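Supplementary Methods S3. Complex input for the cytidine-5'-monophosphate-bound model.
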Amino acid sequence: MDGKHILLIVGGGIAAHKALELVRALRRGGDRVTPVLTAGGAHFVTALALGALAGAKVHTELFDLDDEAEMGHIELSRSADLIVVCPATANLIARMANGHADDLATTLLLATDTPVLAVPAMNVRMWAHPAVIHNVATLRSQGVTVLDPDVGLMACGDYGPGRLPEVHAIMAAVAAQWGDARLTGRHVIVTAGPTHEPIDPVRFLGNRSSGKQGFAIAAALAGLGARVTLVAGPVALPTPPGCTRVDVGTARDMAASVETALPADAAVMVAAVADWGVIPAPAKLKKAHGAPVIELIANPDILAVVAAAGPRRPTLVVGFAAETEDAVANAVAKRIGKGADWIVANDVSGDVMGSDANTVHLVTADGVEDWPRLAKAEVARRLATRIAAALTAAT
Ligand code: C5P
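Predicted complex, serialized as structure tokens:
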């Protein structure tokens, strides 16, 4: 999926803060975002936050001498592949539907033939008001894609339709604009990070996994429209937009959370799960008592369990194999041994753990593909695209 250029118009509603999450999701998916902040939107998010996340100048004024000298507003809307209005408030929808051009956002929307996706968010009663229903119908008749809001508890305490759709749903709608919503309606479980196996209340056995690769994969899958359950070991990474995160500590916790998250269309087990756990001492072990003998007990192999889950087995089960020697040979054997469909082998003898780049080999039933050294985000995008293609081919 090639990166697209998206003009994002942020309207003035309490859901505007979710536009920030959307910006992050779009950028993680490789898209370029040019933000336009309405006067209403500026009451809820700052141009500074929006611009920082977009990595781009935020446009706010219709009559801005600098902007006009650099790039007129007509050009601004025409250079985009898609205009996303998020949140689309009742007021913005009304002005769009009636062809107003009284600020930068509405003028851009009039001065373009670029496709427009409007993501409404408003109070339940506003959404149900005949005027809004009429305006939404008008917009749809003009070719604007207007998403239906989610049903749920509103910021004002009301319950019903009016909530901004989840970021993964917006991402799916964006992807659908280029016929690319390849994981829409699919559920994918991703495990990521290390596990911590407590020895006593203050000590644990762990490993150096940073969780970066797993989180990047979760983000890329969500970027293709998947509903992602991210089962994360102890890492300090932010939750990727559009993912439902379940934080766990031990391998047994992780196994239980994965089991709870089933069924899924695909499972991507990126976590560096401790092979052994410990029955933790109830109180801190004392140095004065001498070096303790710590008995290790085998943890469940989550990947193997999921791959053997019978009717609950995901269509595609993907494992990772971090190796310091013979990465590919080990991965080939691991694919068979664990019953996985694919194994992504990575050589961790260098600086992979915690770094932003990775060199991997994709081991499938058809053979081994050597991928070049890539940023972890790019490994994630390629893998997500492959997963989407495999699921499409399988069903
Ligand atoms: O056997 P090894 O630990 O190298 O296998 C790595 C793969 O198996 C990874 O996908 C990892 O997430 C998964 N795994 C697991 N549960 C374990 C051990 C490994 O899911 N207890």
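The domain at 5-165 is CATH 3.40.50.1950 (Rossmann fold). The chain has a mean pLDDT of 91.
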